[in-house]
Specification:
The protein is built from 13 helices and ten strands. With 356 residues, the protein is of the alpha/beta class. The longest helix has 25 residues. The relative contact order is 0.12.
């Protein structure tokens, strides 16, 4: 999001005392802002009006999808008004993730939000009431409670091996929080969003993709920041890297300041999940869903691979107590030697959920 529009989203929310839910295609609000309720289905269900800003697939944003049966459930209650502002009406999309249904709205405004949001805020300022401030204060209390619950949940299975994504996200954050860092794409199943202080669009360029795009995106981000002193952090899925392992040579050759932390569940797990859903729908054997997807026999040695391309590397690491010290050693090498570093951390497989 444009830096000016980024600031205006928070300013509008603060004026109205309105919760903000970020769809996480890009950073739209600081993750620790007390009105940021990203991921709160309950908060969305309470809304009597939804203001959608630059939302590509509005029907998808307002519905949960059963990825096996394609059943759709509304995230908002009946009668909730919808106002849509943005330029998405001017584009068409055939992306397979789109549910593809038209979302009726009460008011649709085609506008650049960088210009529209400050104008809207000026208009609303004239109608400010004490209730808005009271609502904001209550929401900020609710937000503090939710954040405390998130911290508590992040400690569940804290010492598990393979690592829990929450533990890995916590360890990475502890290692980089005093650095000038940029997270390139993957957010460890939202745990980076929940734990890290992502305070600027410059910290996170956007959502991760797949099929060899993550390593390319990360190298592109590192090239954009080459020479400015930033530490580039790539949470790198193993299956994605196997599509283009030669990209590691490019990063080493260009001496990019990359800290690559493997999100290694030893599987092409996105497709594994798909095979499980197909098996359930067709009534076939789910035990065979791992065929062609399981990467554990033999398990690729990403640390050895990285060393062969000139990276500093450690791993595989499946003991969570070893992650923090390894991260600090890797960052020290990046800062002192000016070459990239890879840690091969082993993470449990994602939990299969019905609705998304």
């Amino acid at each position: 999001r444009h830096p000016e529009a980024f600031r205006e989203v928070a300013a509008l929310a603060e004026l109205l005392g309105a919760p903000v839910i970020d769809l996480q295609a890009r950073l739209n609000m600081p993750t620790r802002h007390p009105l940021n309720f990203t991921g709160s289905e309950a908060m969305l269900n309470l809304a009597d009006l939804v203001l959608a800003l630059d939302t590509g697939d509005l029907f998808r944003a307002l519905h949960r999808l059963d990825r096996t049966t394609h059943e759709k459930r509304s995230r908002i209650r009946a009668g909730c008004a919808i106002v849509d502002i943005g330029l998405m009406e001017l584009r068409s999309s055939k992306w397979s993730e789109d549910i593809g249904q038209f979302q009726p709205v009460d008011l649709s405004i085609t506008a650049d939000t960088r210009l529209a949001l400050p104008a809207l805020r000026v208009l609303l300022e004239k109608h400010r009431t004490p209730k808005w401030s009271e609502r904001r204060a209550q929401l900020e209390k609710n937000n503090a409670t939710l954040r405390a619950e998130v911290v508590e949940r992040s400690r569940e299975k804290w010492d598990a091996s393979p690592l829990e994504p929450a533990r890995l996200a916590s360890e990475v954050w502890d290692a980089i929080k005093d650095e000038d860092w940029v997270l390139t794409a993957n957010d460890l199943e939202d745990w980076a969003w929940k734990i890290w202080d992502i305070d600027s669009p410059a910290r996170w360029p956007g959502r991760s993709l797949g099929t060899a795009t993550q390593i390319g995106i990360s190298i592109g981000v590192a090239l954009a920041h080459r020479g400015d002193g930033k530490l580039i952090v790539d949470i790198q899925p193993d299956g994605d890297l196997l599509f283009d392992p030669g990209a590691l040579w490019t990063a080493a050759n260009l001496r990019l300041p990359m800290l690559l932390v493997m999100y290694n569940n030893r599987a092409y797990y996105n497709d594994w999940e798909h095979q499980l859903r197909v098996a359930e729908k067709r009534g076939t054997d789910k035990a065979k869903a791992n065929i062609g997807m399981d990467l554990s026999e033999p398990a690729p040695d990403f640390a050895m691979l990285a060393r062969s391309f000139g990276w500093y590397s450690e791993g595989p690491i499946d003991d969570p107590k070893e992650v923090g010290p390894a991260l600090r050693r890797a960052i020290d090498v990046i800062r002192k030697e000016g070459r990239p570093a890879l840690l091969d951390t082993i993470v449990r497989k994602r939990e299969l959920t019905r609705f998304r």
